Structures are given as C-alpha cells and as structure tokens.
Amino acid sequence: MKIVSTKNAPAAIGPYSQGIVVNNVFYSSGQIPLTADGTLVSEDIKEQTHQVFKNLDAVLKEAGASLETVVKATVFIKNMDDFSIINEIYGQYFSEHKPARSCVEVSRLPKDVLIEIEVIALVK
C-alpha cells in the first residue's frame, strides 16, 4: 500500500489519509470543499462542487491517476434539491469519460459542507 498525500488539497481532518494506492488502484478519501489551506470556499453549492473537483484532481495527480481514469465516484449531498446543479457541474469534469456513480443525500457532512465526493481510479 502507498499512502497518497499532497499539499495541493486540504489535509485530512482526522485519522485517515487523502488516499491509498493498492495494486494500481487509487482509493480516495472523501473530498470536501475546503481549499488546500483548510478554508471553506463558500456556502454556494456551485463553488463547493468546483472546489471538491479541484481537490480530487490534486489527490488523483499525486497518486498517478486522473479524472480520466476514475472508474467509480460516490457523491454525498446534503440536499437532493441541489442534484441538478451538482449534476451539471459534474458533467463538466466527466464529459466524455463517464465513470460509474452513486449519489446519496445525507443528513450531515463534515464541517457542515453541502457536498463530498470520493473516487476509485486506475493508476497509470
């Protein structure tokens, strides 16, 4: 196992890593809309979603993977009413390549954010 850690995404806020690579497969921890220095971007679902993708991109790159090698994404959202907005932004990052995905509404997320995404990706 290889632990993945980058300063280009927020540090873990608990006893876990940003991600792990096992047998050329990367498993990310859930990424929330904090900047690399740990600041919440805003209360806007659009800005939060874009920041989550910036964080995912950073940990994927550090692992030797990319959005194009993601095979599965799990999206956790606080309000299913935001689904269409999130889906539109999600489609900007996964336009040609469309990994498998689950999306679930949850009652609460860390730091009371509106969205969290975790991915599984192949390492190049």
Care to describe what's here?
With 124 residues, the protein is an alpha+beta fold. It has helices at 45-63, 83-93; strands at residues 2-4, 19-22, 25-28, 70-77, 100-105, 115-122. It has a six-stranded mixed beta sheet with strand order 1-2-3-6-4-5, with helices on one face. A hairpin with a 2-residue loop joins strand 2 and strand 3. The longest helix is centred in the middle third of the chain and has 19 residues, at 45-63. It starts with a strand and ends with a strand. The mean pLDDT is 97.
Would you spell out the secondary-structure blueprint of this structure?
Layout: E1 2-4, E2 19-22, E3 25-28, H1 45-63, E4 70-77, H2 83-93, E5 100-105, E6 115-122
Parallel strand pairs: 4-5
Antiparallel strand pairs: 1-2, 2-3, 3-6, 4-6
Helix pairs in contact: 1-2
The number of distinct β-strands equals 6
User: What is the chain-wise order of helices and strands?
Assistant: EEEHEHEE
Shape: globular
Largest sheet: 6 strands, mixed
**Overall average pLDDT:** 97
Q: How many angstroms does the end-to-end distance come to?
A: 16 Å
Structural class: alpha+beta
Helix content: 10-25%
Number of helices: 2
Low-confidence stretches: none
Q: Using the CA coordinates, give the radius of gyration.
A: 13 Å
Percentage of residues in DSSP E strands: 25-35%
Query: How are the strands of the biggest sheet laid out side by side?
Result: 1-2-3-6-4-5
